[in-house]
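Catalogue entry: protein
Contents: sequence, fold tokens
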Amino acid sequence: MRDLVILGSTGSIGFQALELVAANPGKFRVVAITSAGNNPAVIIEQAKKFSVGVVGTIHNAELIREALPGITVIDGKNAAAEVASITCDVVLNAISGSIGLAATVAALKVGNRLALANKESLVAAGDFVMSLAKQDQIIPVDSEHSALWQCLMAGKRNEVSRLVLTASGGPFRTRKDMSTVTVDEALSHPTWSMGPVISINSATLVNKAHEIIEAHHLYGMNYSQIDAVIHPQSVIHSMVEFIDGATIAQASPPNMKGPISYAINWPERLKAATPALDWTQTHAWEFEPINQEKFPAIELAKRCGELGGGLPAIFNASNEVAVDAFLKGSIAFSSIMECVEQSVHRLGGSSPSAIRDLGDVSAIEQDARTVAQEVLQRMVSS
């Protein structure tokens, strides 16, 4: 039986992980869970159902303590990092946003295996995070990186010529006029059910840009060897091209339980984690190149990644500010990437050449958020 810690248990990834635990009695023991605590009734119910010993939260700590006598409740902004330090078999980091970085670092430092769903950990501080990780200590949860992990088993690393991540294209793949995009339209993803920030990032393809940076760090490939392609059906999750011209692809229905189960149960597969493809039905899979002019996020992220240092963190933090402004109705959808590009341009010359610790990341992100707010104010007033 594996001892499992779930960070972000009330989000989509956390919910599905707990469903997998419930469906596989005797396989996992949930020793701790965390959430922001904005919906305390949910985490209280989860704690009771799975008999956890520790709950971490930022908000509503006293209410949660009263409802869970005998259970240790850790509260405050460092709660997730403290919980991630609990010795266990696997820490699933399903926290959304750069706040999840400290928990990633904490889990790695104590030697826990990390099932990583928090993109920002590698986007904002990839070199630093990977310097802490032992071989196979980080197992990716994103469906694209899980697919790459599986496809890479088909050959030696020195036989790999290219990684190809697939992207659904989001809700605006065929839309020409992006100037009138509404929040509701941007949140309506055609394939996946996700939280608001990830849904917007998918619509701008920032999500795919993040994944390219992640792939660089996870697999040690140059950015020139990492591409993305539109695949609207989201059945092929990613591909690896080898030097002999062979391309190995991983296919499964667009369901996150497959990659979650693979990460928390690695190196073994979990039986019936998700339905397989139905080969009694006709399938048609499409692929098309990404329009870089329409979706500039990928090329911008590659440039930031190649220059390195604090630029990926600037890219990420300024995007968080811009997405928040769009969700609040303050700026147009087309202004999101404009804000990110201007922020990167303004701060690029002062970005540090290397990130040494969490303090560096925090300082870089704070500068990026300040500059992004200034950029947004000029946009609104002009």
The longest helix spans residues 358-381.
